[in-house]
Every structure is written in structure tokens, then in C-alpha cells.
Amino acid sequence: MYAGLRVDWLKVRPLWRSYTRTADGILFVIDSSDVERLDEARLELQRAAREPETLGVPIVVVANKSDLRSSVGEAELQRLLGLADMLAGRPWCVQAACAVTGEGLDDVLVELHEMIVKRRKSRRTRVSTFDLTH
């Protein structure tokens, strides 16, 4: 069953670009208890982050299943995924969460919302400054 689910995701992944084209922010959910698939997650996040349409778009990496003993902490996840280099030049963060209990999900959404608002204000300021100088 798991292999079938994985094949379905492989079919869906090419469609992600159509969803991220006009995105104001990206929530990238990772199973923080599955260390063996972190390389795969890192590659997928790199692909999404490198799309021209997503440059500068805020990204919150959601470390799901943070309630499990086998889960990787936020700082370690950041290091293992190489987020500081990969996401340099854009707003981003890692937030622990548990989808089953809902723990941390409010924080995830608040953080993403704050980054989106800050980016919009910054873009408006730059446009206004540009208009005044040209």
C-alpha cells in the first residue's frame, strides 16, 4: 500500500508548479520522524524553492510528528536539510507540529501569515520608492 501511495505522489509532483505559481507562501510538511527520507524531502524542497515563480516567497518547513521520540528537532532538521544555504534570501523558518493533535499548527499558520504580510509591505515600499525615483 505504501509503495502505491508513493507512486501516486510521484504522479502529482509535476502539478505542484501550477499551485505554487501564484503562492504568497509555502508550507512544506516533512515527517520529522523519518530520517531515511530527509534527502528526498530536501531535493523536493530545493526544486520548489528554485522555481522562478517562488523566488522570495516565504517558506515554513513544518516538522510534522514532532511528538514522536524518533523525531528530529527543529535545529537538527534545519542542519540536515541545509536550509540556511538553500533558503537564503527569503523569509523562512522551521516549526514543529503534530497534525494528529493539532499541536503547533496555529504557530505554523501565524508564522507564515506574518512572513507574508512583511513581504507584501516590503514589496509595496520598494515599488513606491521606485515610482518616486523614476
For the structure shown, list the relevant keywords.
Rossmann fold, alpha/beta, 6 helices, 134 residues, single chain
CATH architecture: 3-Layer(aba) Sandwich
Low-confidence stretches: 1-5
User: What's the number of structural domains?
Assistant: 1
Class by alpha and beta content: alpha/beta
Instruction: Kindly report how far apart the N and C termini lie.
Output: 60 Å
Shape: globular
Q: How would the blueprint of this fold be written?
A:
Layout: H1 2-12, H2 16-20, E1 26-31, H3 38-50, E2 59-64, H4 74-81, H5 83-86, E3 92-96, H6 105-133
Parallel strand pairs: 1-2, 2-3
Description:
It is built from 6 helices and 3 strands; from the N terminus they run H-H-E-H-E-H-H-E-H. With 134 residues, the protein is an alpha/beta fold. It has one domain (2-133): Rossmann fold. Strands 1-2-3 form a 3-stranded parallel sheet, with helices on both faces. Strand 1, helix 3 (38-50) and strand 2 form a beta-alpha-beta unit. The protein is globular, with a radius of gyration of 16 Å. The termini are far apart. Residues 1-5 have low confidence and may be disordered.
Short recap of the structure:
The protein is an alpha/beta fold and 134 residues long. 52% of the residues lie in helices and 13% in strands.
